[in-house]
Amino acid sequence: MATLKQYIDSETLRQIIQSARLEDIGPDGSDVTSDVMVAPHCQASARLRTRAAGSLAGVALLPAIVETYDGTIRLHVDRLDGERVENGMEVARLTGSLRSILAIERVALNFLCHLSGIATLTSHFVAAIEGTGVAIYDTRKTTPMLRALEKYAVACGGGCNHRMGLHDAVLIKDNHLAHLSADQFGPALTDACSRVRSVKPRVKFIEIEVDHVDQLAAVFDAAPDRVLLDNMTPDDLRQAVAMRNSLAVGIQLEASGRVDLENVRQIAETGVDLVSIGSITHSAPALDLGLDID
Questions:
Q1: Strand 274-276 relative to strand 252-256: parallel, antiparallel, unpaired?
Q2: Looking at domain 128-282, does it have CATH number 3.40.50.620?
Q3: What dihedral do alpha carbons 192, 193, 199, 202 form, nearest 10°?
Q4: Annotated catalytic residue: which of 5, 51, 74, 106?
Q5: Do the Cβ atoms of 113 and 286 come closer than 8 Å?
Q6: Is the torsion defined by CA of 96, 99, 102, 104 positive or negative?
Q7: Model confidence over 135-147: pLDDT tens digits?
């Protein structure tokens, strides 16, 4: 199981939470509603509960959130990231200043509901292809500044992470190739793969995107680690797998584009190695959680 520390360091996380806090309470650090409704020394206990079934992600942020707002709040965590939960389960309890708890409430829920929504949707895709041996991957279609947390949530849902950004892996897409003529296509790819391995040997992988099966022979000749099969039909995917098995054993095939819960198993059963899905991060519905004062 992935841990939050594998994705984000404590200082970066603190900065993200601090930015969320300042956005909410403003430069004066004031919750004007609680200032008039709650006495400064009022103490309370609150329970964070699920209001729907799903998979949790973001619970590991709670200690940093509490510390950013009020280090005197006592936090007890009942559930962990990656756990499957049912409606009505207690996730955590907070005890201390009521003003602080009320200030924490929305930012904490925003993080947990969003990240748990990603974990939940990811888990549905993972369940849909169970037994095929294919892995579900995310993409770079993430919320700016929250990519590390969203990719962590994908892992909490049982998915895998594609490249973190432009810096750690090579993905040659159609827009990188648009300026090339047909006779330049194959040599340019072969040269690019060779130069990456000699100049940037630490990249995680080299991948080339194709949208037509007839591009595959030249791509296989370039010897990338992966080939991205973009928006192909199941028949095209099966043909691509057969060509790979004949010409380029060892190169992974990734299917992507227009993947949903209705067609993901059909895609996985074509024999590809992985399926990448942008919607698990950019379109995941929030998992409903709430915070109730005892």
A1: parallel
A2: no
A3: 140
A4: 106
A5: yes
A6: negative
A7: 999 999 999 999 9
Active site residue 151: no
Give bridge partners of residue 44 from the DSSP assignment: 96
Q: How far apart, in Å, are the Cα atoms of 287 and each of 135, 142, 168? A: 23, 17, 31
Given the residues 78, 90, 230, 236, the one annotated as active site: 230
Out of 3.30.70.1660, 3.90.1170.20, 3.40.50.1980, 3.30.450.40, select the CATH number for domain 4-122+284-293: 3.90.1170.20
204 is annotated as an active-site residue:
no
Considering 105, 138, 207, 209, which one is annotated as catalytic? 209
Selecting among 14, 140, 141, 265, the annotated active-site residue is: 141
Which pLDDT tens digit goes with each residue over 27-82? 888 899 999 999 999 999 999 999 999 999 999 999 999 999 999 999 999 999 99
Take residue 106 and report the two structure tokens written for it: 């929305």
List the structure tokens of 108. 């904490």
Distance of alpha carbon 194 from the chain centroid: 30
Please say if 83 is a catalytic residue: no
